[in-house]
């Protein structure tokens, strides 16, 4: 079974709360831990970013990452995680997204939206369309974007990926 960022996050958080890891303790470098767990560096990075965001870790650049020295035992006990993967929240979040009003999820502040700039840019984009771009879009997704993603995966992940293998929805 592969270890995901959630498991890494949960283990470190539990060790800090249990007092196994003390404030100021150094944690393994991302590359080292990824190698030990046989996971991608991005997996460990994601867990470390959440822990840093919640105040459990402090990144000190070349000196490494440490358990936040400012954590006190009282603060550790009281602190609730910012991120809790519970499906019971899903109906509430959907209802919030679908609600009418000023604070809707995924909707920008329309009073601050640069409508004139948007119209200029969208008009320019529409006028520059070639006839083949006005037809039904490719089923697999926008070809230049698929090519860019394939190139990125080849460079960053060392994969042998072709644009034909990428499907954008």
Number of strands: 3
Molecular shape: extended
Radius of gyration: 23 Å
Q: Mean of the pLDDT scores?
A: 81
Helix and strand content put the structural class at mainly alpha
Q: What helical percentage do the residues reach?
A: 40-55%
Uncertain ranges:
none
Number of helices: 7
H/E series, N to C?
HEHHEEHHHH
Strand order of the largest sheet: 1-3-2
Write the layout of secondary structure elements.
Layout: H1 5-18, E1 26-27, H2 30-37, H3 41-53, E2 57-59, E3 65-67, H4 73-78, H5 90-98, H6 115-127, H7 143-156
Antiparallel strand pairs: 1-3, 2-3
Helix pairs in contact: 1-3, 2-3
Description:
The chain is mainly α and 169 residues long. 46% of the residues lie in helices and 5% in strands. Strands 1-3-2 form a three-stranded antiparallel β-sheet. It is extended, with a radius of gyration of 23 Å.
